[in-house]
Amino acid sequence: MFECVINVSEGRDLDVIGELCDVSGSSLKDMHSDEFHNRSVYTLINDPVVLVDSVHALIATCYERLDLRTHQGVHPRFGVVDVVPFVALDATETDQAVMLRDDLARWLVDKFEVPVFLYGPLSDNTTRSLPEVRKNAFVSLMPDMGPATPSSGRGCVAVGARPILVAWNLWLDEVSLDDAQMIAKAIRQPAVRSLAFEVGEQVQVSCNIIDTDAIRPSQLYDQVTSLLNPPGRVDRAELVGLVPTSLLEREEPLRWTQLGLARDTTIETRIVNWND
Hints:
The structure is a single chain. The chain has two domains: about 1-160, Formiminotransferase, N-terminal subdomain (Formiminotransferase-cyclodeaminase, Chain B, domain 1, 2-Layer Sandwich); about 165-275, Formiminotransferase, C-terminal subdomain (Alpha-Beta Plaits). It has helices spanning about 15-25, 50-65, 95-110, 130-135, 175-185, 215-225, 245-250, 265-275, and strands at about 1-10, 30-35, 40-45, 80-90, 115-120, 125-130, 155-160, 165-175, 190-200, 200-210, 235-240. A hairpin with a 5-residue loop joins strand 5 (about 115-120) and strand 6 (about 125-130). A seven-stranded mixed sheet has the order 2-3-1-4-7-5-6, with helices on both faces. Strands 9-10-8-11 form a four-stranded antiparallel sheet. The longest helix has 19 residues, at about 95-110. It is an alpha+beta fold.
């Protein structure tokens, strides 16, 4: 069984967001939207054949309904369908996740003629990260497949194969964007990617935990808290997508609510219960 976490550059139009949920079918296990980022994250999990059909349906609908030229939001993006990573939930099936990635990349080029950047393991035995793609796309890095220039309405897309990642945000009150940026820099490490954004009247420290064995959300929460100057405070924690049960069970249950976690936010629970 595989997970595909599709990041779409639309977080405000409820009709489109709902339509994308509908076309994802039984593969959809979670959806998270944010109006400030103007972004939605669709977590699809299924056996490969069904999953690929769901991914194709969601992407085709995105390209039919959305136009990058009208998009505005605080989150970096370079495509209507911005990022599409495949995740092997069984670590022994990583090679198949790479095959799913490469097959999708070819389909995107054949059907929609969009430039595709790959990340994760590459054919030359190197590994490319998503931040490398964002930083270097069309500068020192050309698309791995498709046209050499982005589509005006669709942009381009990064398609990856990666391990499980936890996307997790802290919303802060009485904190300036400059201070939030310093905090994001302070907590950044090999296991954690972090950025700061202004979101309405608040700021947000947005984290991607890319090594869930190395660090837990509670450790990041406590580190951020220690860096805040009064009257700054953490308003809330927000999970984007799902977490493995193994990570949840390493956190004290009394802190789950504070951390934005719950038994229902685990991959394993959603596989069993989401479509019942």
